[in-house]
Amino acid sequence: YVEELEQELWQYDCALTISRGWSCNRLLAVSALELVDTDYRILAELGTWRVKDGLRATCQLPGMKQDRGHTPVQAIEAMLEILALKERVKLKPGRHTLESREVNSQRYNINTIYLRTVFHADYCQSSDVEDSLKWLSRPTFHGSTLR
Prior knowledge:
- Helices cover 14% and strands 49% of the residues.
- It is mainly beta.
């Protein structure tokens, strides 16, 4: 997978850094969207499909890598364009969180640091358009039990 990592670098999908201990880190900037409808359900990505690897089950907020030179907001706007949701999503101004997660990439066998900006938004339902999105209810806690 060295060729794929090299391609990611040339396409500016990631960056490599060297730490003080001479270990290499792969950095990825990602933008994600916590989209909530009027019934307080959230939109979740339940899997991804790659021709080479097949189906990989996930349960995460929809998001995408930031292109070089693009802001997190521009990445979210591009994703909303792709999903044809731009007219029905209202980003909450100033409502975003920054997260950092460090994992060892199994694909590249390298430490990877994900720098993720999560935007919080409301989904505006329209009565004249059939809603094709599948929504999951947000889990609620009752004491120490998740329902």
